[in-house]
């Protein structure tokens, strides 16, 4: 089974802090994704990566950056955290960008910015 | 742009069938997915359907696809309390495998 592991289930940070959310997958997947989930809005894509050191903006990249130095690890960075970034963050990975290769999700990080 | 719509809430009695509906707008979508999210957890893939299929059945789950109306549904037979969760439909939107999700349907199963 595919395992996508997010480093923290719950995280509390202060406004203005630099925040790192880590995600690791163990199935040699090319694609990795970061979403945020807010009630009534579903999942919104922040960034995705289709290869090491490659990244593409999603629908809501403002205030975020990402890093993918190794294939198995994809980090989401909040450069200067703000209260409107309080949310549930979900990481996902998929094998190849075509076909019925579904995205596999981690358990999520619930981030609170005070 | 693409938009996936779902009703936000469904209440169903234990033992009955649940039907969760979804409409999508991108007629070029090749695959459509159903995910389940239990409280405090990530998304778990339930099933998916290829766009050239009308129906797919997997144990208690039946997926129906009407491409003409861009309508997707998930039927859960003999609904159990463990089926209480949020259900998301999603469509592939490009060759990178990006997914567009609906807002999710909260399913509550009552005894």
Describe it.
The complex is a heterodimer of chains A (114) and B (111). Chain A has strands spanning 4-6, 10-13, 19-25, 31-38, 42-51, 54-57, 64-70, 73-78, 87-94, 104-105, 109-113. Chain A has 114 residues and is mainly beta. Chain A is globular. Chain B has no helices and eleven strands. In chain B, the strands form two sheets. In chain B, strands 2, 4, 5, 9, 10 and 11 form a six-stranded mixed sheet that branches. In chain B, a hairpin with a 6-residue loop joins strand 9 (85-92) and strand 10. Chain B starts with a strand and ends with a strand. The interface between A and B is medium-sized, with 28 and 23 residues.
Offer a few descriptive terms.
heterodimer; A: 114 residues; mainly beta; 4-stranded antiparallel β-sheet; 56% strand; B: 111 residues; 6-stranded mixed β-sheet; 5-stranded antiparallel β-sheet; 11 strands; 0% helix; globular
Set down the secondary structure blueprint.
The complex is a heterodimer of chains A (about 110) and B (about 110).
Chain A: E1 4-6, E2 10-13, E3 19-25, E4 31-38, E5 42-51, E6 54-57, E7 64-70, E8 73-78, E9 87-94, E10 104-105, E11 109-113
Parallel strand pairs in A: 2-11
Antiparallel strand pairs in A: 1-3, 3-8, 4-5, 4-9, 5-6, 7-8, 9-10, 9-11
Chain B: E1 5-6, E2 9-13, E3 18-23, E4 31-37, E5 43-50, E6 55-58, E7 61-66, E8 71-76, E9 85-92, E10 99-101, E11 105-110
Parallel strand pairs in B: 2-11
Antiparallel strand pairs in B: 1-3, 3-8, 4-5, 4-9, 6-7, 7-8, 9-10, 9-11
């Amino acid at each position: 089974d595919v395992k996508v592991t997010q480093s923290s289930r719950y995280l509390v940070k202060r406004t203005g802090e630099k925040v790192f959310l880590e995600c690791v997958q163990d199935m040699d997947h090319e694609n990795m994704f970061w979403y945020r989930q807010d009630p009534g809005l579903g999942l919104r894509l922040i960034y995705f990566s289709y290869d090491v050191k490659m990244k593409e903006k999603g629908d809501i990249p403002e205030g975020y950056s990402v890093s993918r130095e190794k294939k198995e690890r994809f980090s989401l960075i909040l450069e200067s955290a703000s209260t409107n970034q309080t949310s549930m963050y979900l990481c996902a990975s998929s094998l190849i960008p075509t076909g019925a290769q579904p995205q596999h999700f981690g358990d999520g990080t619930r981030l609170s910015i005070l | 742009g693409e938009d996936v719509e779902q009703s936000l809430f469904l209440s169903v009695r234990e033992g009955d069938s649940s039907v969760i509906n979804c409409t999508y707008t991108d007629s070029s979508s090749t695959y459509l997915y159903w995910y389940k999210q239990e409280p405090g957890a990530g998304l778990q893939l339930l099933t998916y359907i290829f766009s050239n299929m009308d129906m797919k059945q997997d144990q208690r789950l039946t997926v129906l696809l009407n491409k003409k109306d861009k309508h997707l549904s998930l039927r859960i037979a003999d609904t159990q309390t463990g089926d209480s969760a949020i259900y998301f439909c999603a469509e592939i939107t490009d060759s990178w495998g990006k997914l567009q999700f609906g807002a999710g349907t909260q399913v509550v199963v009552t005894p």
